[in-house]
Design brief:
192 residues; mainly alpha; 2 domains; 3-stranded antiparallel β-sheet; two-stranded antiparallel ribbon; 9 helices
Length: 192
């Protein structure tokens, strides 16, 4: 769209794009490191195309025109400026160095405190088990139906005994989130 909106040129025809790609990657194509593939267009006709990596696509992009190259360079310079602004400045005098040291030590103390809080939370979460985690961790060998029955039983047991049930996000689209139960509840439930 840059070609149309900024430069006022027509869209690049597919055959012309293929010529640009063949020219840009002629060595790779000659060495058989990079080959065209076929696809079916909307009419069902076979067409040639190249599957480019993101880096290869950028390489083709900067060949487009002077305007594109200027826009890409301007964008790179903008990113470089943003990066250099984020870089801490090296102090040039003793007082500035001392202030930077105090700030770094305060940040270090804050990070240590946050780490300790996360470790406590992690240790706490390690004492909670979903049915699937308990099944796997303790090698129970339960099938899916058994896991579902145990999950319903654990939920009822925990509610009846006022035991905390935690919601746990899963990477299984069938469930979204699932319950996890304290290890002590597992031991009592399975013993009953």
């Amino acid at each position: 769209m840059f070609r149309v909106k900024i430069e006022g040129k027509a869209l690049l025809a597919h055959k012309n794009l293929l010529q640009v790609i063949r020219d840009e990657f002629s060595e790779e194509i000659n060495e058989l490191k990079f080959q065209p593939v076929e696809y079916a267009d909307k009419k069902g006709e076979k067409r040639t195309m190249f599957e480019l990596t993101f880096s290869q696509a950028k390489q083709v992009l900067v060949r487009e025109s002077k305007s594109v190259r200027k826009a890409v360079i301007a964008y790179i310079e903008k990113l470089e400026n943003e990066l250099s602004e984020r870089q801490p400045k090296t102090p040039t005098d003793y007082l500035s160095a001392l202030k930077a040291l105090v700030a770094a030590e305060e940040e270090k103390a804050l990070l240590k405190e946050q780490t300790e809080t996360l470790e406590i939370a992690l240790n706490d979460s390690l004492r909670f088990y979903t049915v699937a985690k308990y099944n796997k961790e303790f090698k129970m060998g339960w099938d899916m139906l058994t896991c579902q029955k145990i999950g319903k039983g654990m939920s009822a047991y925990c509610r009846k005994n006022s035991i905390e049930i935690r919601k746990c996000e899963t990477n299984d689209e069938r469930f979204g989130s699932t319950n996890s139960y304290p290890l002590t509840a597992w031991e009592s439930f399975l013993a009953s």
